[in-house]
């Protein structure tokens, strides 16, 4: 079975409309609390995560999806959240045939957002990140790449589009955004250090509660800022990066002045996943090559440390049991 990473009852008003991420029933904090995640913080349930040998699945009749026999475990695990979320991001961005698209963040969600954008009709796609192996993987998908430690991504995109900007942006970073370590973008945003530090305090007031096992991004609003600045007037932005409800920084004035369409939120997994499962089962798309490591569950902490450090080559890890 595929376990959708968000739970839904299947019968409330939102579930009947296919908007299962906003199920009125699943989140025990009440209808206004929004999406109920596995392994999320208190406002999202809390419900235990799934990196275990056994797990209890609330609302199982609507949260579980049967897997056809010809779909591998590596394919299926990316259908629990990553591929549907990426596809949803491309839908939020309203990708049209021939569009120019920028994808901010070339981690596993960003990689599948690149794939989704092309499959929804994009003509040119730029991937923006600061980790070389991620950019290499994006190149393998025929995306054009921008290393924000070498170039200012906004200037690079504006130059490539003759000053127009891209038609659409998929933001796949969220509050994990990192300040450029060097290069023109680092110099440009050095003056905003105090703002970024305040955002970190706002979004992650309890940092380093487990030593070095989790380090928040040091520029929570930066990717969203770049998205607004690099998209064309009347452009479209789909935001699937995770942002804390406590973050209040967003360039709303710039977005309004450019007549932008902004759509954001958590994926409606129960609605989005089945067609993608059919796509994979038919052999029309293979997500498994995006899995880069298999680690026994006993090594989970070490694997998370590698992700936290953004080690080269760590794109998607599958934890194995037994």
Q: What can you see in these coordinates?
A:
The protein is of the alpha/beta class and 322 residues long. The protein folds into two domains: 2-80 and 269-291, Alpha-Beta Complex (Quinone Oxidoreductase, Chain A, domain 1), CATH 3.90.180; 86-264, NAD(P)-binding Rossmann-like Domain (Rossmann fold). Helix content is 34%, strand content 14%. It contains 13 helices and ten strands. It has helices at residues 13-16, 60-63, 73-78, 82-92, 108-119, 132-140, 153-160, 184-189, 193-203, 222-230, 252-257, 269-281, 300-308, and strands at 2-3, 64-65, 100-104, 124-129, 144-147, 166-171, 231-239, 261-264, 293-296, 317-320. The strands form three sheets. Strands 5-4-3-6-7-8 form a six-stranded parallel sheet, sandwiched between helices. α4 packs across α5, α4 (82-92) crosses α12 and α7 (153-160) runs parallel beside α10. It is globular. The two termini are 18 Å apart. The mean pLDDT is 93.
Core attributes:
single chain, Quinone Oxidoreductase, Chain A, domain 1, 322 residues, 2 domains, Rossmann fold
Percent helix, as a range, is 25-40%
Number of strands: 10
Q: What's the overall geometry?
A: globular
Q: How many structurally independent domains? A: 2
**What's the architecture of the largest domain, going by CATH?**
3-Layer(aba) Sandwich
Beta-strand percentage?
5-15%
SS content category: alpha/beta
What is the CA–CA distance across the termini?
18 Å
Instruction: Give the biggest sheet.
Output: 6 strands, parallel
CATH topology of the largest domain: Rossmann fold
Low-confidence stretches: none
The helix count comes to: 13
């Amino acid at each position: 079975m595929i376990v959708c990473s968000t739970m839904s009852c299947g019968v409330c008003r939102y579930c009947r409309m296919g908007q299962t991420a906003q199920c009125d029933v699943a989140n025990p904090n009440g209808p206004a609390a929004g999406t109920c995640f596995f392994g999320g913080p208190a406002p999202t349930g809390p419900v235990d995560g799934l990196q275990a040998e056994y797990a209890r699945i609330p609302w199982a009749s609507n949260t579980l999806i049967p897997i056809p026999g010809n779909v591998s475990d590596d394919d299926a695990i990316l259908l629990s959240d990553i591929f549907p979320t990426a596809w949803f991001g491309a839908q939020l961005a309203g990708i049209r045939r021939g569009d120019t698209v920028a994808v901010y963040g070339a981690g596993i969600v960003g990689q599948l957002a690149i794939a989704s954008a092309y499959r929804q009709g994009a003509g040119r796609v730029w991937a923006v990140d600061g980790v070389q192996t991620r950019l290499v993987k994006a190149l393998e998908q025929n995306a054009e790449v921008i290393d924000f430690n070498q170039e200012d991504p906004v200037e690079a995109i504006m130059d490539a589009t003759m000053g127009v900007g891209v038609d659409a942006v998929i933001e796949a970073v969220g509050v994990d955004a990192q300040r450029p370590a060097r290069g023109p973008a680092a110099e440009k945003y050095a003056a905003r250090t105090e703002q970024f530090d305040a955002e970190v305090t706002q979004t992650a007031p309890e940092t380093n509660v487990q030593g070095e096992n989790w380090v928040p991004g040091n520029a929570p609003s930066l990717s969203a800022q770049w998205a607004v600045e690099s998209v064309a007037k009347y452009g479209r932005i789909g935001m699937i990066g995770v942002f804390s409800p406590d973050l209040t920084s967003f360039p709303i004035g710039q977005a309004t002045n450019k007549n932008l369409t902004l759509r954001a939120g958590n994926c409606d997994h129960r609605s989005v996943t089945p067609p993608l499962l059919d796509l994979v089962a038919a052999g029309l798309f293979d997500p498994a090559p995006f899995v880069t490591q298999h680690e026994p569950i006993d090594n989970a902490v070490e694997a998370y440390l590698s992700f936290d450090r953004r080690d080269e080559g760590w794109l998607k890890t599958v934890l194995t049991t037994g």
